[in-house]
Design goal:
The complex is a heterodimer of chains A (271) and B (272). Chain A contains twelve helices and no strands. With 271 residues, chain A is an all-alpha fold. With 272 residues, chain B is mainly alpha-helical. In chain B, a hairpin with a 2-residue loop joins strand 1 and strand 2. The chains are: A mainly alpha (271), B mainly alpha (272). At the A-B interface, helix 2, helix 3 and helix 9 of A face helix 2, strand 1, helix 9 and helix 10 of B.
């Protein structure tokens, strides 16, 4: 047990150092990522001015801007750039062999390196995020109650896990189809629309709202943001967190299963 | 000195790219479908917004659909003809492959700008045609005239040229920087401003922003001018903008050519 913990610690340390190499580029990139928010603010200001109403689908103008800002944060937890495509590449060029030989579990390794990646990201991105949130503070309704905030933090952690295991499962598909780039692109489009990254999901008509409720994607962006803004309260909040945890479990199991099945199929290409 | 036939060379490029694309037909199809589905999601988003409001900054639903189709025309043309090449340029600089382009007896900017055509991106062009055909007749009080047929395509092309100038200028900076990884991101964030009607940029921050992106970096002109010509009545403001767009295109093209040649002078090959 101790030896294993030590291995993990070393993996984590190496990944941390690897990520810190390009920190300058990183911070600038993070700040630039907020630029689309500027156009969103103008667009929604124009929409509210033309609509002549103070609320759209239960959201005020301030709520919507705050919602977009919060989804940036939730996506910082749930998005996993390069995870699925990385697995697919390793399957294709045969690099994945090393996990079959070495006594390191593929999933644990990926999870640790991802945690390291995210830790560095938060460290570097904290500055830009704090700056932008401070500038836009007037859009926020203020700090939520402590128990709501705790639920928000919990849903963020769950969003990270859901994002990781969902995307890892997608990557495992590469064991069956070697070229999955386009499949991943479609998946990305899907998550962008149905996770609520593009707009608050409450705006959808009833039928589509029903569809979205059956999918895991809304927990990647919409759910934590809506919790913070107090759009989901009481029983619905508890229920939501439980469903989110359920999806996490489902994808932990599915990605384990896919990995086993994949290793059995795997025929070791490349050198 | 014998000048090469630029049209002939371009047609060969286009043909070779088509042959390459057709070698991986399934991939071609998926690429076309995915870029179309991205636009359909965009359309879905605005359909959703128009459930809650009759108009956005005086653009009603069908007028805005004309705006979106204009965006699709311009973007699909830029993505088909220039995007893959601009991305390739920074790679050419990094690997030293630009040497070969410089040696060829043809204009270097022409060669590196048009070498590859990404045919799959033209999928959106046809979707835009359909959308335009659907939206235009539904605009209230709209009368189609010969001028629309003449001016609209011309201004779409002018928009493409402006975006090309911005893109090649950005790509040329990779000659100075050696590598320009965030080029594509930067491109995305800049053009992000151009995809909305210019009227939404109002107020203390909005007006200077609108002026910056109209008169300094004229990316707001790109889609707004052709879309207005088709969706709106011709007024004095339109005439002014239409005139300005011509001037802006010429200046952008000249400016980007100047930057490109300046950048080439600093090129110091790489590897061997």
């Amino acid at each position: 047990m101790y030896a294993r913990a030590q291995t993990w610690w070393i993996i984590l340390k190496i990944c941390l150092e690897e990520r810190l190499v390009y920190r300058g580029d990183f911070a600038l990139g993070t700040l630039m990522r907020f630029l689309p928010i500027v156009t969103q603010i103008f667009l929604w200001t124009a929409v509210f001015a033309s609509a002549g109403s103070v609320s759209i689908a239960g959201y005020s103008l301030e709520d919507i801007i705050a919602y977009y800002l919060l989804t940036m944060l939730t996506r910082a937890f749930s998005s996993m750039p390069g995870l699925a495509s990385g697995i697919a590449r390793q399957v294709r060029d045969g690099e994945i062999k090393k996990f079959l030989i070495q006594p390191i579990d593929l999933m644990s390794y990926l999870l640790l390196s991802r945690i390291a990646h995210k830790l560095v990201y938060y460290l570097v991105a904290a500055g830009p995020f704090a700056l932008v949130y401070y500038i836009c503070r007037s859009y926020f309704p203020g700090w939520p109650a402590p128990e709501v905030f705790a639920a928000f933090l919990l849903s963020l952690v769950l969003a990270f896990m859901l994002g990781f295991f969902l995307e890892a499962s997608m990557g495992m598909i590469a064991f069956w189809f070697l070229e999955v780039t386009s499949l991943l692109f479609v998946y990305m489009l899907f998550t962008f629309f149905f996770s609520g990254h593009m707009f608050p999901l409450d705006m959808l008509p009833d039928f589509w709202k029903g569809v979205v409720d059956f999918l895991p994607f809304k927990f990647l962006a919409y759910f934590p943001a809506a919790v913070f803004l107090g759009k989901i309260e009481g029983d619905a909040l508890v229920q939501g967190l439980m469903i989110q945890a359920g999806w996490v479990l489902f994808f932990i199991v599915s990605c384990r299963y896919l990995m086993r099945a994949g290793f059995n199929r795997y025929s070791g290409f490349g050198g | 000195m014998n000048h090469p036939s630029y049209l002939g060379v371009f047609l060969t490029f286009a043909r070779n790219s088509l042959i390459r694309d057709m070698t991986f037909r399934a991939n071609f199809l998926i690429e076309a479908v995915s870029s179309v589905s991205w636009m359909i999601m965009n359309l879905g988003f605005y359909t959703l917004v128009y459930r809650f409001t009759p108009s956005i900054a005086d653009w009603d639903k069908y007028e805005f659909f004309v705006f979106i189709s204009t965006t699709m025309f311009v973007n699909s043309l830029v993505q088909a003809f220039f995007m893959p090449n601009a991305q390739e340029l920074s790679e050419l600089v990094r690997t030293g492959g630009l040497d070969y382009a410089l040696l060829k007896p043809i204009d270097t900017q022409f060669l590196v700008s048009l070498q590859r055509v990404n045919w799959a991106s033209l999928g959106n062009f046809f979707v835009a045609l359909l959308l335009l055909g659907y939206a235009v007749p539904k605009i209230e009080g709209f009368e189609l005239s010969v001028w629309h047929f003449v001016l609209y395509p011309v201004y779409v092309l002018l928009g493409v040229f402006i975006l090309y100038s911005v893109m090649i200028t950005l790509a040329a900076t990779s000659i100075w920087l050696g590598r320009n990884q965030s080029l594509y991101d930067f491109w995305f964030y800049i053009t992000n401003f151009s995809r909305y009607p210019m009227e939404i940029y109002e107020g203390t921050w909005g007006t200077p922003l609108r002026q910056l992106f109209t008169f300094v970096i004229p990316i707001l002109v790109v889609i707004n001018v052709p879309a207005r010509l088709l969706a709106r009545q011709l007024g004095s403001e339109q005439v002014f903008l239409a005139g300005f767009a011509v001037l802006a295109t010429i200046l952008s093209l000249l400016g980007s050519r100047w930057v490109f040649r300046k950048a080439l002078l600093s090129y110091r090959s790489a590897s061997s």
